[in-house]
Specification:
135 residues
Length: 135
């Protein structure tokens, strides 16, 4: 969140003005900074970390092989994270619509233990899944 704007509802892809999405698409400076960075670097893969739904997103996924590698390496099941129709203004949706590379969402739980998984072993699993072998 940047102030009262949920940055993952502020991207100009399927934007819908809601209480937390901001007054217009890309209205938050942080959203524009992330967009410029991703446009400039044009990565092959983007892994977007969220909580607390626990799953590697399978909804409208652009690269199913990446999804399977992440699920296997992270030992987190795939899950259709379709937001019950409210997946609007997301960075993942915007990136996938505007870039050749693939963005995917990984959801962890909300406990401190679950969040701690993002370090160490899981970071190495992500690097391996995207082709940046480590360790």
């Amino acid at each position: 969140m940047a102030g009262s704007v949920d940055l993952n509802r502020n991207f100009p892809h399927r934007f819908i003005r809601r209480a937390n999405s901001g007054p217009r698409a890309s209205s938050a400076k942080e959203t524009r900074v992330v967009m410029r960075f991703l446009d400039r670097t044009d990565p092959r893969y983007v892994v977007s970390w969220h909580q607390p739904l626990i799953g590697v997103d399978s909804y409208a996924v652009k690269d199913r092989a990446l999804m399977k590698r992440l699920s296997s390496g992270l030992k987190i099941k795939t899950r259709r994270l379709d937001c019950h129709g409210s997946c609007h203004g997301t960075m993942t949706g915007w990136f996938n619509a505007h870039h050749d590379g693939a963005a995917i969402t990984v959801e962890y739980g909300s406990t401190a233990r679950s969040m701690a998984r993002m370090k160490g072993r899981d970071a190495n699993a992500v690097l391996k899944a995207v082709g940046g072998r480590r360790g």
